[in-house]
Design goal:
Blueprint (H helix, E strand, L loop, with lengths): L5 E5 L4 E6 L8 H16 L14 H6 L7
Antiparallel strand pairs: 1-2
């Protein structure tokens, strides 16, 4: 059976609402979704930097993909 286990969205200046169901976390699904969102952003909005607001729990994921914390 097919099921939606994760989602995310992107607009001109940010990535938003990246979620993966708890039972599917730590399987690389969030990384795959994030990579796709970055690709879409860079194709659709190449002149805009990417920003996001993430939870402390997701910090490692975003840092692994090159994001840095701005205080």
């Amino acid at each position: 059976d097919l099921a939606i286990v994760g989602v995310g969205s992107v607009n001109c200046d940010s990535l938003k609402r990246l979620f993966v169901l708890k039972e599917y976390q730590r399987m690389g699904i969030a990384s795959t979704i994030l990579q796709q969102l970055i690709t879409i952003h860079n194709q659709e909005y190449p002149s805009y930097p990417i920003t996001l607001t993430g939870t402390e729990m997701a910090r490692h994921l975003y840092e692994k993909h090159g994001f840095v914390v701005v205080e």
